[in-house]
Every structure is written in structure tokens, then in C-alpha cells.
């Protein structure tokens, strides 16, 4: 729960909006006692900030962004064992094999949310484990170059061979 | 656009309703339950909306919303976000455990029903004196939640939730809802979701994961 609260504060700072009070109803984060759910709060903060480019360029982009926001909450955050998590990472890696960003040709809320979801997982990996997820690693290394996005999260190291792959 | 689903998949009801409501023609293709459609997913997942060739939405709620937002039926709102997130992170896992639990001879239904109780209570309370879940018109929140609670009619589980049942009956008076239910249940209504064969724990786990 502490990690979720920190993430929401980091995202609010990235967006340049005040975060408000975060509480928890069981494991579900609640903003200011009324807005419930991680995805719902992330989208609300983005609307407040007027950074509408994070919602993509059209209804179709928005649908794909919604899909990845949902995937993060229902498929990544709920992993109960190593095997499931490893399958999710494989899926993200394969999906990103021909992409720079999750949706469209610029950063969106899907990138922001998944960055927060996988940062801690990749931080615990060895260079060679990260090389096995080469597309996911390349995507993250590109995203993390923005210090506004990173906020309190450390820059993750990747091997040079990976960077110049 | 094309809906790809296995036979009798109750989640495909949602996409069919959304397509019909927004007057968008879609093709409905039936495949085997274990067919892998999305190339980067490691487990089979159905239904899928093929938005363009090789461009797939595997999130049913995102597909529903695409029909509603691209045709201007609704715009993004925090209330709809919240209901859709509630549906897929709380309601759906609970309903699936219940539906799969029903066919396991050794599973005590009592426990799963207890888990469903507070979730259905929440919905029932919110529907008090309301025709729709958000505002005064149909939104993707109604469609997403209808598709997931509809199979519970079969278990007579909704009989004590009068606001939910009257909301369902009211939605079923429109042709978009009738046609979708007719197509997916093969005109059998909610009883078609009763699985005859007992599933193994492995199959249940796999099915739950794929959601």
C-alpha cells in the first residue's frame, strides 16, 4: 500500500497537480475519500492536469490505453507466483518488440502505469535476466530518461550491449 | 471490426450489446475455446475485438467503451472509470470463482456466495431508484456490469437483490440486449451457463487466470 501511495504521489508530481489524500479500502486506493481504484485515480489526476496527450490522439488510442491500464491492475498486480509474473513479463516484452511506446507514437498513461508496475521487478534483475527481456528493457530505458517521470525512482542500469542493440 | 469468441462466452454479450447500441456492424466469429488469437499473450483469452487486422483489444470493457466513445454516445467520466475498474477487479473475479465453483462437486458454494454478497449489495444499493448506473442514460458501465451479472440469474442468486433484477429486466426490454443474449445463449437464457462437466482444478485456475 505504501508503494501505491508513493506511486500516486510521484505521478501527481510528474503531472504537476496536487495529489490529495490517499486512503485504502481493503487494498483499493481511494483519493480524497471518494475516487476509488488505481486506474480511476491515475486517469482523474491526468484530467485535472490537462496533460490530455497522455490519453492518446483518438477514441481508439484511448481504448488501447484503457486496456493496458486494466491489464496492469488485473494481470500484473494480481500475480501470485513467479511463473505468472514471468509470463506477464514475456507478454509485455513480445508486445513491445516492434514498439517504442505502448500506444501510438508518444508517451501515454499506459507507459506511465506500466513503468511503475515493472520498475521494482526489473530493479531486482541481473543484467542477463534483463537481456532476456530485451524489448521491455529497451522500452523502460527510453521512458526512464525523463527525470520528471522518474521522480523518486532510481535510474535502472542496463548493459551497454543492450543499449546499442 | 470483428468479434472473435468461443461458443457461449458470456463476456462476448457485452461487446455485442455495445456494437448494436452504437449501430456499428461487426462480424461475429466463433472459434475453439483454447484458440490463441493475440500473438503476444501466453494464455488463451476470449472474446477479442479485432479493431483492425492484427490489432486486437483483449480487454472486453475497453472494447465496449470504444464503441460508445467513438460514436459520441458517452464521453470519459470518472464515474464510468470507477465502475469499469470495480467490474473487472472485484465483481468479475468473484463471479468467475462462483460460476466455476458451482460445477465442482466438493466446493462448498456457501463460501463463494458469501464473497459475492457484499459486492452484489453494493451494486443493489447504488441502483436504488435509478434506471442506469451512471447518470440518466445507458453507459458502458451498464453494459459491462450487465454482461457479468447476467449468468447469476441462472443460480437464482439475484432474487434477493430487487434493484439489480429490475435493472436487468428493464435493460432486456431493448433489442440490443435481447439480441446479444439470444445469440450468445443460443436462445436458452441464463441456464446455458450451467456447465455440465465438472472442471478440474487446473482448468479452473487456467480459466480464472485468462480473465
Automatic annotation (TrEMBL), chain A:
It comes from the Eukaryota. Gene3D superfamilies: 1.20.1050.10. PROSITE patterns: GST_CTER. GO terms for biological process: positive regulation of DNA damage response, signal transduction by p53 class mediator. One of its GO terms (cellular component) is cytoplasm. Residues 44-163 form the GST C-terminal domain. InterPro entries: AIMP3/p18_C, Arc1-like_N, EEF1E1, Glutathione-S-Trfase_C-like, Glutathione-S-Trfase_C_sf. This is GST C-terminal domain-containing protein.
